[in-house]
Amino acid sequence: MKKRQSWSSRLTYILAVAGATVGFGATWRFPYLVGQNGGGAYVLVFCVAMIVIGIPMILVENAIGRRLKVNVVDAFSGEVGGKKIHKFWQSVGYMSLLGAFGIMAYYMVIGGWVLNYIAQILFGMFDLSNVVSFKVTSEFYEQNIVNNPLAISFATLVFVLVNYIILVQGAVNGIEKAAKYLMPLLFLLMLMMVAKNLSLDGAAQGVKFYLTPDFSKINMKLFIDVLGQVFFALSLGFGVMITLSSFVKKDEALVKISVITGVLNTAIAVLAGFMIFPSLFSFGVSPDSGPSLVFKSLPIVFSHMWAGEFFAVAFFTLLMIAALTTSLPIYEVLITTLQEKFKFTRKKAIFAVLGGIFVLGNLPSLMATNLLSDVTIFGKNIFDAYDAISATIFFVLTSLGCAIFVGWVLKDEAKREILQGSERHIKVINFWFWYVKYVIPFIILVIFISSFYDNFLK
């Protein structure tokens, strides 16, 4: 068997994980959920949830991934205490593959939307040099996103091809090199956008909305949205952490890496809000427009700014980079499994994964609001169904399976894996193990029941 590659350094791994976890989760999904849930209350609960469930679950998936250093399905195999682990547990790995497929089915389409916006602004078809209204941006969104499947399919295909070019470089080489260059650029663009937003007149009102908790807004829906966002933002439940940690050296401190990952992701998500809310309040734009926030509301803001078209292109380029650094490792979950479990060559695995998702996932998703608008699953269009089923069922059940697998199957072996490189954190690891064994499964079950009811039974 070919010896597995490892990340060249802890920094490159952290950059790769940061790229995997930033994505649209921090730059697109987090801001609109903040807007829908009243601002500061959501931000506060999100930060607490990252500590209470996010970081412990990162460590769970890291322990599973590095233990055998194999693909996400075979990671749930091997022996414990001289006894072979039952094949049933590999079903957890297969669930993560379904979740990865589900998210990429619509995720790449959003990448196509962003690419289309960049092209339309650059070539003057979306003129932001003069102030535009919500009616104008809504009409543009309808014409160029909702009802233009040909343009979006082409833009999505371009985005998929960019992923292909990077992925053929290798599991570690392609993602690592991309992260080295793209993540610093992402941070630079983000800081530039934050600085611009905070310099606007009236920005303080947006900051107040964003950071001041209104405790009356805290309810069960907010908790469900927050906990769902933690799973989405940290790429938990669809094999990304398991796959990326399978390339981590045995002497690396997983406790430190997990904490850094959680803190960095939280900081970037919170920072993303400063790119958006100060400017919305500066120009009197409502923050609660939902998933279309960055596509309908932000162009209005850019049209008010000096050099607005430049900042619009910069912002959507930032979104594009974030999408790319996330899509690469999610694709890798599926590619590595095809290579190692089903003996595909790397090029064949990449072609099968990218091509299969484009045909079976991306094309139906981008047609969900036009050519296939009459097709519904659980009362949702295809795009929304991919999101709801993967996030509500597969991500959550996979995470539940991971927690139970570590706490009740691997037991001391999981602790020994975490201890390698983290010996001085023995007390923290002992508490983490107890917490994962007894508390985390209960929290995840509550999330699953509440989310399932809200999405499919309500």
TrEMBL record:
Keyword Disulfide bond in record: no
Subcellular location: Membrane
Gene Ontology CC terms: membrane
Topological type in the membrane: Multi-pass membrane protein
CDD domains membership: SLC6sbd_Tyt1-Like (cd10336)
Pfam families with a match to the protein in the record: SNF
Segments crossing the lipid bilayer: 12-34, 40-60, 92-115, 150-169, 181-200, 220-247, 259-285, 305-328, 349-368, 388-410, 431-453
Superkingdom as given in the UniProt entry: Bacteria
Keyword Secreted belongs to the record: no
MF terms in GO: symporter activity
UniProt KW keywords: Membrane, Symport, Transmembrane, Transmembrane helix, Transport
PROSITE patterns the record matches: NA_NEUROTRAN_SYMP_1 (PS00610), NA_NEUROTRAN_SYMP_3 (PS50267)
NCBIfam families for this protein: Na_transp
Similarity-based family: Belongs to the sodium:neurotransmitter symporter (SNF) (TC 2.A.22) family.
Protein name listed in UniProt: Transporter
